[in-house]
Specification:
There is one protein chain. It contains 6 helices and no strands. The longest helix is centred in the C-terminal third of the chain and has 25 residues. The protein is elongated, with a radius of gyration of 16 Å. The mean pLDDT is about 95.
């Protein structure tokens, strides 16, 4: 089994891959999955009506999260360096942290449950901090 001297980016990759997998589970579960995760009322209603829009949006999120997991693995040195590795990892970290900080203010009152806003913001904060610590840990050896 390959090892890495960047355990935090490996953890970031695992967490992000888990989030991607959760999004796939939501798609398979359909309206019940969207509702359980606290998606907005419009998304739940669209899923109930048979619209493909919720699955398409969730699939895009899944693909983005999977790509971010790959970038974390690349940053950890477990796979070959991906293009623009350092700036992409900075961007991923920034997106997670920004979502964590702004989410509770922006997402309130738009049909999402309060539980979804709190839980998803806390998760994004955790992910962002793990990415940040991993990025700091590997900064000097990351290709720009």
């Amino acid at each position: 089994m390959p090892s890495s001297d960047a355990p935090l980016l490996v953890i970031a990759a695992a967490l992000t891959a888990l989030a991607a997998l959760l999004h796939l589970v939501v798609i398979v579960q359909g309206p019940r999955g969207y509702q359980w995760c606290g998606a907005g009322n419009r998304i739940v209603a669209a899923a109930r009506s048979g619209s493909r829009v919720p699955a398409a949006l969730t699939s895009v999120i899944c693909v983005v999260l999977a790509a971010w997991a790959a970038y974390a693995l690349s940053g950890a040195g477990l796979i070959a360096p991906l293009p623009l590795l350092r700036p992409v990892l900075v961007g991923i970290t920034s997106v997670f942290l920004l979502r964590a900080l702004v989410g509770p203010f922006v997402l309130v009152g738009n049909g999402r449950s309060a539980r979804f806003v709190r839980v998803s913001s806390a998760i994004c904060l955790l992910y962002g901090l793990v990415f940040l610590a991993g990025l700091v840990q590997r900064w000097e050896v990351l290709p720009g």
